[in-house]
# Entry
Amino acid sequence: MNILVPTDFSDTSLHALDYAVSLAAKLDARIHLIHAIGTPTFGIPELGLAWATVNMPEAVRLSQTKLDALVAAHKSLAQFGESTIATGDVRDDILEAAERVHADMIVIGTHGRRGVSRALLGSTAESIVRTATCPVLTVRTKGK
# Structure
């Protein structure tokens, strides 16, 4: 069994990873991590391209270091497979990774936003729930 866990390194996504690790240990599953770096557009696509050209290599390097640390911290508790850094549309990157690793499940953190904040910020988790071809388990941080 393969479980894909998207992470943005927030407390919410780290809580989802802990949940996935516990689940993977019980199911003898392998966890695959993905961190997707969205490219900001700043309202003007050309500015987003300029930002990505200058900052993306460092963002990828720092993200890979963080992913490696997450695997190291949890590898005694569960099996780990591929860890991926992707750039582009976060939702598409997660769905593509799920297909690539043959995910049987996606475990994703959700902030549980409602109303205006959800409308303004969008919901990656909601989009993944609606469009993934495998089951999706959403995990909220305790007390949120």
